[in-house]
Amino acid sequence: MFKDLPPTPVADKRPVTDTRHGIERTDDYAWLRADNWQQVFQDPSVLDEGIRAYLEAENAYQKQAMADTEELQKALFSEMRGRIEEDDSSVPSPDGPFAYGMSYVTGGEQPRFFRVPREGGEQELLLDGDAEAADKAYFRISAANHSPNHARMIWGYDDKGSEFFKLQIRELGSAEDLDDVVENTGGGGAWSPGSEGFFYTLLDENHRPSKVYYHAIGSAQADDRLVFEEADPGFFVSVGGSKLNDFIFINIHDHQTSEYRILPAGDPQATPAIVAPRQTGVEYDMHEGGDVFFILTNAGGAKDFKIVEAPVDAPGRENWRDVVTHQPGRLILNHMVFANHLVWLERENGLPRIVIRARDSGEEHAIAFDEEAYSLGLQGSYEYDTEVIRFSYSSMTTPSQQFDYNMRTRERVLLKTQEVPSGHNAEDYVTRRVMAPSYDGVEVPVSLLYRKDTALDGSAPCLLYGYGSYGATIPASFNTNCLSLVDRGFVYAIAHVRGGKDKGFAWYEDGKHLKKANTFRDFIAAAEFLAAEKFTSADRIVAEGGSAGGMLMGAIANMAPDRFGAIIAAVPFVDVLTTMLDDTLPLTPPEWPEWGNPIASKEDYETIASYSPYDNVCAQNYPPILALAGLTDPRVTYWEPAKWVARLRAMKTGDAPVLLKTNMDAGHAGASGRFQRLEEVAFEYAFALKVTDKA
């Protein structure tokens, strides 16, 4: 499998001892964290040379270890690129006199933003991402928001991968940028109704959006007015507007509590007013509906959420009135408000549907589909006074379809079907949803995709994907990339483990904080079930997850290394205890509700210490492991996977390789271009094929 490997890089051991709650812990590789990490995010060239040398040695090692797959990587990349419609274009969305859309050109890496007259006419190019990205190793556009008067556009970009976004203002008539440059922002802005300025969030040096400013067009950023500042580092701030352009919404939130402050959109000098004071464990999200707000909330014990309304002039919690009552097991995911209709996306029994209610009569109907597993996306509309919304549908065998839907007549119009230029016949594939019993008898949904001619006798390799944190649900949607594995005989599987919201909010609660171990046990149970049912065999399963899903990979590697043939951990959150003990890191205080606060609580410390992948590496035989990192990643810092790999090498038994690939020009999301990203996927898939002898 891996032959004639060079000597592995060896990281120096420089022990650092830390004592908390009377518990002593020694970290041999803490030095891999750069003291000037904030500066590295802004300018990677200032990285300590010793750290850089180690990361580059790891890159050289993995490159040599994977050298025999270079032709396979090229073939995989060519296949995946061949499934992309290179000159793809979205269906423009109407807003006033124009319709706005996004497109790509053949060979282009970055999106282009355009508009056309609403009733038809010549396309006007507003922003050319390829031109803006020229000569940049990394480039990502975060926003392209046109103004209410259609004369200007806020657009944001990051050219380091660190997610410190710059905002610029473009005159749409001339396609030229004004001198205004607003730096270190969250990536977008909310326009004032008169289009003379916008609201945005500013990131502090620890990468936390804690302040909202108002920028008047033509002024310097130093003169921007501070509208709101959040003092608690455990809460993040975001800002947005309403479809009617009447209000600016300031959303203050962590992972379990939220608070809104609002101000009249036309009065940037106003003091934001609190809607409902934050109350630990109570979340709410709001939209304007004329003289009322419609608010999605879990207040009053509505674990799976309900929708209430409140008068605009008195929106406090004491005036909330239920309009869509709470139903246990029916999780309301999000909602939208229009002049005549209230719309929401819900999930019940693991499947989504869109529900539409007429505001005058209360009559409801739903949009649903019949496949065993599928994905729905509610895209809504720019406009408030409309009868038409837009949504998308796909399944693991069905390419994405985009529809316009008339909420009054119930007419559904297919606007676009995802093209697969190299060809795709859905009849060649099978998609299923099976239930894997976990250690405690709870049934874990697993979505499957495989070719009809794949032998289900235990011989097929399997890529088993998992996430299971923050309540995120991994949809059973169409993925052209995974066909490169499925067409080579793989079973592609998604384990919908606890920690997501696949089976309601309780499914999330049962996989977070003190119950986090359920996430790991569910994933192991899914692997055991797939092997027992002969979809695959234990030594043929390649487990994959990224970010918090990478933490899942690290945990199952420690807990059940013999249940997996290999593990791919992308930007893995594996040094959980150290990170949660460091309140200077960007995400640490806002993450305490998810994982626990080991600074304040000995119980939380011991719980995290019991599963933190880095802390639980031990002398056992691990399967082959591939870890991927981004140097400027502000979410999972590069040193987490670097330290993890160093410790695995030092402690593991057996000769299975551990590889670390660090993208020295990117952050959490990896390469920014659409084809550059495919090269990374091709590399991961080549590893999966190599370790299962399918290369």
Name the CATH superfamily classification of the domain at 16-81 and 430-691. Answer: Alpha/Beta hydrolase fold, catalytic domain
Strand arrangement across the biggest beta sheet: 31-32-34-33-35-36-37-38
Contiguous uncertain segments of 5+ residues: none
Q: In percent, how helical is the residue content? A: 10-25%
| Biggest sheet record | 8 strands, mixed
Mean pLDDT: 95
Describe what you observe in this structure.
Belongs to the peptidase S9A family. It comes from Hoeflea poritis. Pfam families: Peptidase_S9 (PF00326), Peptidase_S9_N (PF02897). This is S9 family peptidase. Keywords: Hydrolase, Protease, Serine protease. With 695 residues, the chain is α+β, with helices and mostly antiparallel strands. Helix 3 packs across helix 13 and helix 7 packs across helix 8. Among the domains are: 328 residues, 3-Layer(aba) Sandwich (Rossmann fold), CATH 3.40.50.1820; 91 residues. The strands form 9 sheets. It has an 8-stranded mixed sheet, sandwiched between helices. It has a 4-stranded antiparallel sheet with strand order 3-4-5-6. A 4-stranded antiparallel sheet has the order 7-8-9-10, with no helix packed on it. The protein has 13 helices and 38 strands. 19% of the residues lie in helices and 33% in strands. The protein is globular, with a radius of gyration of 25 Å. A hairpin with an 8-residue loop joins strand 20 and strand 21.
